[in-house]
Amino acid sequence: MAFDFSSSQAKRRHGPRGHYDLPLMLAAIALAAIGIVMVASASIAVADGQHIGAFHYLDRHLMYLALGLPLTFIAMRVELKFLEKYSFQLMLLGVLALLLVFLPFFGMRINGARRWINLVVISFQPVEAIKPILVIYVASYLVRHREAVETKFFGAIKPVLVTGGLVVLLLAQPDFGSSALLIAVTVAMVWLGGARMRNLMIMALPMIPALIFIATSSDYRVKRLTSFLDPWKDPFNDGFQLTQALIAIGRGEWFGVGLGNSVQKLFYLPEAHTDFILAVIGEELGLVGILTVLGLFALLVGRGLYVGLRGVEVNQRFAGYVAFGLSLMLGLQAMVSVGVNLGVLPTKGLTLPLISSGGSSVLMTCAMVGVLLRATYEIHRAEDARRTAVRTAPTADSVPETAMTEAHA
User: Fold this and answer.
1) Is residue 56 classed exposed, middle or buried when 0-12, 13-18 and 19+ CB atoms within 10 A define those classes?
2) In the 8-state DSSP scheme, what is residue 271?
3) At a CB cut-off of 8 Å and minimum separation 6, what does 37 contact?
4) Residues 358 and 32 sit within 8 Å (Cβ to Cβ)
5) DSSP letter at 258?
6) Which value, to the nearest 10 degrees, does the dihedral of the CA atoms of residues 386, 390, 394, 395 take?
7) Rounded to whole angstroms, how far apart are CA atoms 362 and 69?
8) Given the DSSP bridges, would you call strands 107-110 and 113-118 parallel, antiparallel or unpaired?
9) H-type helices in 51-125, by residue range?
10) Which position among 36, 231, 248, 390 has the lowest Cβ density within 10 Å, counted as fewest Cβ atoms?
11) Looking at the predicted structure, is the pLDDT value of residue 163 above 60?
12) CA distance 338 to 269
């Protein structure tokens, strides 16, 4: 008697296999490595001038990366169906965290803004957690209400209204840059989820004047807009940040002045290790360095969007929408940061993901990369299952002749 070792039980044990997207992973690792080098270069003079130790910001950055790596690995192992199941509860926790910044004991006011929660040991910025939470919530909504999103106006506007509530809390802090980022990502996800362009245009009509009003309602926002349009008009006051960034990038020319040899980071360029770290890259590594960073972001975001599209095609819609949303979140934030450094966008307090020095931003970016990699794993697993099903599907040639005869009888 022969034994069939290709039984169905054996197939289940060696069933569809997933794998994490290698190009995306390598791009994220390369950006994080560049970030370590550039934070070290850009922050030494700043820390030394503050008399807190030359490597204070580098040590802090490495500490948060060390804390973020376990978050990445945990996120890579958590099934997305778990996040989909508890997406509403995650959103409630995010809203609660945004409200905590306004309480006297928990909230911290820094530079006139209430954006941080005091956790005794460290401070945490809730908006960084809201970014992945919003993507998970909107992705879950798009899966649950797919038909309404594709055919009805109110089906498409509901997730935008949820984002609008978050934006109200962010503007009260105030944080206009993150507010605009969340709105852009939500609208893009709804469009990728199948919403009609007509409905999105109707939705945008009242939003555009509202954003213009908010952008011009505060003196400091108006000054940022005017200094962006002509930074050389007042280069030592309102236009100081942008002019110094442009000087740094101009000095770098093609190949830069050499790693560690930046002059602008020596007390001329504000926030050289955070918001304007790309200007230091441009000065020290030149146009080649900037293009390398842009190429890595293009690879990371492009692979995320491509794999997300494949996820929708193999009916892994939640994983696909999560890949769309997280790729857009990282890509748009990087685009805004690059635009600010190059003088093509008004100054906003958004860091360059995976590169800029930070605390909660580094932690949550690591978590976002982990969830994004998990999405690629589940999409590749679904693709493998489809290929296996196609290979093992019975064909007319493989059906025994006796079975065919009985079927005809």
Assistant:
1) middle
2) T
3) 259
4) no
5) -
6) 150
7) 10
8) antiparallel
9) 56-77, 80-85, 87-100
10) 390
11) yes
12) 15
Residue 371's H or E segment, with its range, is: helix 360-392
Taking the model in full, what pTM does it have? Answer: 0.88
Q: 124: which strand partners?
A: 117
* Region 338-348 average pLDDT: 86
In terms of pLDDT, which residue wins out, 53 or 130?
Answer: 130
Any residues with CB less than 8 A from the CB of 198 and at least 6 apart, and which?
Answer: none
Determine the length of the chain: 409
Beta bridge partners of 123: 118
Instruction: Give the Cα separation of 238 and 230 in Å (integer).
Output: 10
Contact 179, 171 (CB under 8 A): yes
Q: Which two tokens stand for residue 140?
A: 């879950």
List, in sequence order, every residue forming a beta bridge with 118; answer none if it has no partner.
123
Average pLDDT over residues 215-241: 74
Angstrom distance (rounded) from CA 25 to CA 327 = 13
d(CA 339, CA 66) in angstroms, rounded, equals 29
Both tokens of residue 292? 């390398």
Sign of torsion, CA 320 321 322 323? positive
Distance CA 70, CA 367 (A): 9
Task: Tell me what percent of the chain is helix, strand and coil, each rounded to the nearest 5.
Answer: 70, 5, 25
Any idea which of 79-93, 120-134, 392-406 has the lowest mean pLDDT?
A: 392-406
400 pLDDT above the threshold of 70: no
The reply to whether omega before 174 is within 30° of 0 (cis) is yes
Q: Which residues contact 215 (CB under 8 A, 6 or more apart)?
A: 176, 221, 225
pLDDT-derived band at 397 (thresholds 50, 70, 90) equals low
Which of 24-28, 212-216, 347-351, 353-357 is the least confident region? 212-216
Q: Helix 22-49 and helix 277-313: axis angle, to 10°?
A: 160
* Longest Cα separation, the chain: 93
What is the C-alpha to C-alpha distance for residues 251 and 274, in angstroms, rounded to an integer? Answer: 20
First vs last Cα of the chain: how many Å apart?
A: 31
Residue 99 vs residues 11, 116, 137, 334: alpha-carbon distances, Å: 51, 11, 19, 27
Please state, in angstroms and rounded to a whole number, the distance separating the CA atoms of residues 254 and 318. 43
**In angstroms, rounded to a whole number, what is the distance separating the alpha carbons of residues 198 and 196?**
5
286-298 pLDDT tens trace: 999 999 999 999 9
3-class state of residue 115 by DSSP: strand
